[in-house]
Write a structure and sequence with these properties.
Layout: H1 5-20, H2 26-29, E1 31-35, E2 55-58, E3 61-65, E4 68-72, E5 74-78, E6 85-87, E7 90-93, E8 98-101, E9 104-106, E10 129-132, E11 135-139, E12 153-154, E13 169-170, H3 182-187, H4 197-207, H5 214-217, E14 225-226, H6 292-329, H7 334-366, H8 373-376
Parallel strand pairs: 5-14, 7-13, 11-12
Antiparallel strand pairs: 1-8, 2-5, 3-4, 6-9, 7-8, 10-11
Helix pairs in contact: 1-7, 6-7
Length: 377
């Protein structure tokens, strides 16, 4: 299934609202924005000192908004309750688009794409500290902690066997190839708490700062990390030392426009208002497991999903066309027509978002949990 950037740009507000809502389970907080091109590399930066005991580090990440990718600085945040740890969000290739998997709080660390965020988050688990009897103890070997002010510390050297790179997404061309372990998959079914209010406000502050946009800072944000959430100015704001890799903006990126000229001087593709204007997506092929019976079963599942999505597409297109005909018969004014077009954009974008999530879910369900699984079948 194709996921055009123009469709996503129209639905970003809807998707971001989804990610900002608090939740109590992984199913409710799992999926956020989807984009058809991956985020920039992770910038190089230093961690600001921990402000006081009880604060946990939350790594910085690239989020997506109406003006393209923007950097949400890493920051220290109070855990919502003792015993909870932060599993960072991550971008992952879903077969037709890059999808942001929203981070969450819980008693155990889940899968975060194998992304090496640093400062204890080296791609798997968390080595930055641990809870002991209701108090959090910091590992000074990976965290910037002032032992004069914070006494709950220890020093354990971490051997990081992960190849050091700045890749910020899982899957797709050039992405991290890590897959969740059985323990990480089990964490997905535990009760979680979504980002706390300080984190959503922190992301909003970054989204509202044009300097944080990749199209402006070329992958080297002026504020890469902060001592406290939401405080993007002052002594606690740490600039990036360097971009993680040379920045290559996509042709359809909306940022860095001057005098109405699209980025890179490439004409921006038209935004589809109606479902009938969308390009039909390709029928997905099931994975080859080496077992003919299993392959046939998986392909039938793919065909069933494809048929259902095509039916959804046709129904929405017919409904929208009927509304256009009624507007013509009623000789609607420009305001009424504009409102209808805006509603159709939202409907079309939501349908595409839903189809992308369905395709990703089926792909994950069919993918072998172990490299040798296909050989055992």
């Amino acid at each position: 299934m194709r996921c055009s950037a123009s469709v996503v740009l129209c639905s970003v507000f809807f998707a971001i609202v989804m990610t900002a809502l608090p939740a109590t389970s992984a199913a409710q907080i799992g999926i956020g924005v989807s984009v058809n091109f991956g985020p920039p590399a992770l910038p190089v930066y230093e961690q600001p000192p921990c402000p006081s005991a009880g604060y946990l580090w939350t790594p910085g990440y690239w989020a997506y908004g109406p003006d393209g990718y923007y950097w949400v600085p890493g920051t220290w945040v109070m855990a919502p309750q003792p015993g909870f740890l932060w599993t960072p969000g991550y971008w992952g290739w879903g077969g037709s688009a890059f999808i942001f998997h929203v981070g969450f709080w819980g008693p155990h660390i889940g899968f975060y794409g194998g992304i090496n965020y640093g400062f204890g988050y080296f791609g798997n688990g968390f080595q930055g500290g641990e809870w002991r009897g209701g108090q959090f103890f910091y590992n000074r070997s990976v965290n910037n902690v002032n032992i004069t002010n914070i006494h709950n510390t220890y020093n354990t050297t971490i051997v990081n066997n992960t190849t050091v790179n700045r890749v910020s997404y899982n899957g797709g061309t050039g992405g991290i190839t890590s897959r969740p372990t059985s323990q990480e998959e089990a964490v997905e079914h535990e009760q979680h708490v979504g980002p706390v209010a300080a984190q959503t406000q922190h992301e909003e502050a970054a989204r509202n700062d044009p300097q944080q946009r990749a199209s402006v800072n070329q992958g080297r944000p002026p504020v890469a990390a902060t001592a406290r959430a939401g405080e993007l100015k002052g002594e606690g704001a740490v600039p990036a030392k360097a971009a993680g890799a040379p920045y290559h903006p996509p042709a359809n990126e909306r940022g860095n426009e001057q005098a109405g000229r699209p980025a890179n001087n490439v004409p921006r593709p038209p935004v589809p208002n109606d479902a009938k204007d969308l390009q039909p997506h390709d029928r997905a092929a099931a994975p080859n497991t080496g077992n003919a019976k299993t392959d046939q079963k998986y392909q039938q599942q793919q065909d069933k999903l494809y048929a259902k999505q095509q039916q959804d597409h046709q129904k929405l297109a017919q409904k929208q066309e009927q509304e256009h005909q009624r507007l013509t018969q009623q000789k609607a004014n420009d305001t009424q027509r504009q409102q209808t077009e805006q509603r159709h954009q939202q409907q079309t974008s939501q349908m595409e978002q839903k189809h992308t999530q369905q395709a990703q879910h089926l792909q994950q369900k069919q993918a072998p949990s172990h490299p040798a699984e296909s050989e055992r079948k």
